[in-house]
Amino acid sequence: MTTEIENNFIFWNSDTKPSVEHFTYSLFWRKGDNTKNTTPRRIIDTNELAEIIKSKWLKNLNKIERPYITPYGVFHKRNNDSLVDFNNEVICLDFDNVNNKTHLTILKDQYENNPSTILSCISPSGNGLKVLLRANHNFEPKDLYNGLKYNIDLFKFKLGNITPDSMQFVLSQPMFIPYCENPYYNPKAIPLKENFEKPPIVEYKPLNENDRIILQETLSDDYKVNRINNWFSGRVKYCLDSLENRPIEQGTHNYLWSVIMRIYPFLNQQSVIDENAITQQLERIVLNRYNGNKSEVKVLHNSIKIAKTYSLSIVDEINKTANKKI
């Protein structure tokens, strides 16, 4: 026999609409393995989210079947491009692996005493904390991840070295609903009184002067340096733009490896683009293409490490197609 809550998950009730005074979220749940589900079941508000968190039905549910919400709004599908309604005053914080119980208690009390905290609860493992915070951050959906990540260190998002997982700032990142008998819930939460700073625009940065001098001594003249730098910056722009605009149905994995191999083996032979700037751009693109799956970022970094072990000549690469050889 199914419970009332489970029935509410299974059947969409068109007569039941979330209250306008509360934020709304897409709820994702299906029997069996819900971890790879990308189709929402229905829309809920924060009142209902708090009730689900306390439900005995959720307490007895297998981990892989646990429902999740998209805290930053309502989506047709769980990907950044399917946003329907943006919660522009919500920040979701996810603290994991806080193994010191005293630190976890202090962290919990810190947010429960904050008038901007909407909801807070200890994770089922007993060593994590999930928080919904209200704040006027003023970031557009496309800028949410970079904006919130940049502001982690500027505000009281963390306690000492205990820092929230920045992957929870991805627009369509799921927040799996934890069971908690007594979650903290404040439907009258007020916006956080802080000014959020916009992150600086990531630009291709030249190497420092010492590295530039060393590189110029290695190369024969300024003409060669400029020729190499112009070629390399053009290649990077083309590769990143091609990857970002590549249709999802054409696949990502193999093409991403091709992009990495066309860039990283040549990094130390140019002086116009900083490695971190390229890697940050790739991280953003990968997160968008894989629906915020942070494991794919780890794969990206592993691929970059492998690519950097290759020793390829940038001059030979240019001369393959150049009318005027270097």
Summary, kept brief:
The protein folds into two domains: 4-185, no CATH class; 209-319, no CATH class.
Question: What do you see in this structure?
Answer:
The chain is built from eleven helices and ten strands. It is elongated, with a radius of gyration of 24 Å. The strands form three sheets. It has a four-stranded antiparallel beta sheet. A four-stranded antiparallel beta sheet has the order 6-8-7-10, covered by helices on one side. Helix 9 runs antiparallel to helix 10 (294-307). The model is unreliable at 8-20 (pLDDT under 50). The longest helix has 24 residues, at 222-245. With 326 residues, it is α+β, with helices and mostly antiparallel strands.
* Helix proportion range: 25-40%
N-to-C SSE series?
A: HEEHHEEEEHEEHEEHHHHHH
The chain-level mean pLDDT equals 84
Largest beta sheet: what is the strand line-up?
Answer: 2-1-3-9
Taking the sheet with the most strands, its summary is: 4 strands, antiparallel
Per DSSP, the total helix count is 11
Unreliable stretches (pLDDT < 50, length at least 5) are 8-20
Count of individual domains: 2
Question: Number of DSSP strands?
Answer: 10
Secondary-structure-derived class: alpha+beta
In whole angstroms, how far apart are the ends? 77 Å
Rg calculated over all Cα atoms: 24 Å
Strand residue percentage? 5-15%
- Described by the principal axes of the CA atoms, the overall outline is elongated
What are the main properties of this structure?
single chain; 326 residues; alpha+beta; 2 domains; four-stranded antiparallel beta sheet; 11 helices; 10 strands; elongated
